[in-house]
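Follow-up to my post from last week.
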Amino acid sequence: MHHFRYVGQRLHCEEVDLATLARLHGTPAYVYSAATMADNFTRLVRGLAGLDLRICYACKANSNLAVLRHCANLGTAFDLVSGGELRRVQAAGGNVGASVFAGVGKSEAEIQLGLEAGVYSFHVESEPELDRLNRLAGRLGVRAPVAIRINPDVDAHTHAKITTGRSENKFGIPLQFAAAAYAAAARYPHLRLRGVQMHIGSQLTRVEPFVEAVQKVLPLVRQLQRDHAIEYFSLGGGIGIVYPDALASGNAAWWDAQPEGGRPLTPESYGAALRPLLAPLGLKILLEPGRYLVGNAGVLLTRVEYLKRGAERNFLIVDAGMNDLVRPAMYDAYHEVVPVQRDPARPALTADIVGPVCESGDCFARDRTLPEVGEGELLAFLSAGAYGYAMASRYNTRPLPAEVLVAGARSELIHARDTFESMIAGERIPGFLKG
Ligand code: LLP
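User reply:
Got it. Predicted complex:
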């Protein structure tokens, strides 16, 4: 469920007209719905009721300070993957002490920051990292809380660039080496074994890979409970959202009309499949959802610059580019595109929806059919709340877009669009180039 709906013929985010936000803040702009994030959080918690659950929001998905604060207010901890994310969570007033620090390449400075901030646990991905963590903890006179990330070697059936749980991926320690890695970790004087972690990929739309991975890892988990008295099991993130028909998916009846198998992975089906495996352990269960919490809570608002009618195809050229939303170019991702002002009388138009960036890859959708729109009209790319702004860049010296948060009838700019000055602020022309 999400809170982007037509009120009359105008697309709204909660009670706010998106055309009004475009006028106030310009385009391209990301608009997020606070109520959608809250609903997603509540639904996930309910779906896993009966477990001792901690949600660690994977803030890589959307790390705007306001989004982090909203999640913290809802009661999430955080999954952090850099010193920068840790400092963001601190700046937003989030609970770092309940949060986990992940990542294959933690630097010494990042580990030190995590130790000083007192993170709940480090998710360690290699033997050399155990060694580094032990050394730095010793230097600070503390014991570092640790879980080892296990790579269960399962096929997540997702895009190759976002699958992580196969043995050929760089992530985690293979299951067959895990017991030895824990035994080695237990010998370090400055480490304290606290849990076990896995994450098999992102945007999973079926529950079976999760079940398979948990089943594979369970014997190890039980052994770690006996041998090292671990207190938690983190299943990582990865719950997918359905990008096609995202607007329709806000309507439960629409889903009910879908044939079996056409339904998305839901927190209810995820919980129903995993609860029987997890509850008997009596461990704290951590989830690290990113996309599930914020993906369908955001849209990218863009304005049509030109409708260019070609010999072979039509091009709808919009003012957002691959630098603003890279997912279609990078993962062939599907985002539904809808007009902000609906007009049932409009004829249909089939076009490639493209941005202004000088690359053929700057294409959001090929051969997409939508009601005909022209110069100056607004479109919304749906399900853009996760890995949208977070992956945006200034390629082509295009300013990073604005971000706006809506809650009910209220809205506020939560990140101003770049200015030319902010884009070049860190740059210098060295003296030796000046005549
Ligand atoms: N935990 C770990 C260890 C992860 O590596 C990730 C995501 C998550 C949790 C959160 O996964 P989620 O619940 O959001 O699926 N940029 C890509 C997605 C990359 C995901 C990387 N890791 C995209 O736009 O699809």
